[in-house]
Write a structure and sequence with these properties.
Layout: H1 7-11, H2 23-32, E1 49-52, E2 67-70, H3 72-79, H4 85-101, H5 104-115, E3 120-123, H6 125-129, H7 132-136, E4 140-146, E5 152-159, H8 161-172, H9 175-183
Antiparallel strand pairs: 1-2, 3-5, 4-5
Bound molecules: zinc ion.
Amino acid sequence: MTSALPKRAKKRASPVERKRIPINIKTQILTEAGYRCAVPTCRELLLLDLHHIYQVSENGKDELANLVALCPTCHAYYHRGHISRESIFAYKSILVAINRAFDLESIDRLMFLESLAKDFLIVSGDGVLHFDRLIAAGLASFAPKSNNRGLLVTYSVNLSPKGKMLIQAWKSGDHLKIKHAVTRTVPRPNSGGKSPRGRH
Ligand SMILES: [Zn+2]
């Protein structure tokens, strides 16, 4: 009778992604990413993988701060070196920041405005309300449009320069650009002076 496989061979089977991530952490990470890939130029829906920014083998933990949602394609790109860890950090940091400031629908609308072939969207008065959070944060702006009889019926909504800067920074994966864009975007907590934010 042949003996079992050597124990060592079994042990080598990649421990990195095998560890079970607690379901509550998983849900929080997926929610943070809006159930989409965290890579802003991808934003693929569903079939997400959770990626450890610091691998388990590097003592990376199953914690919110160390996990990011990636689709299988971007996950594979990362492991092949096509996406840098710095970019993953940057994508993660912007997701955290915009999640604090906005709801997921507003984030989608921000991306939607950015994707428009024209620079602006024509909406009704009610339509403007869908962009209220972005407008209030200065990421989008609106202007009344009158028809040829001079009646005010619609509004144009577009990304503001600040909104464009944020999206460009997000897509660049450049941590410094993102930091700059986010600190000019996310409302600061009321005075008190010190920022509680720690350093990585
Ligand atoms: Zn992706």
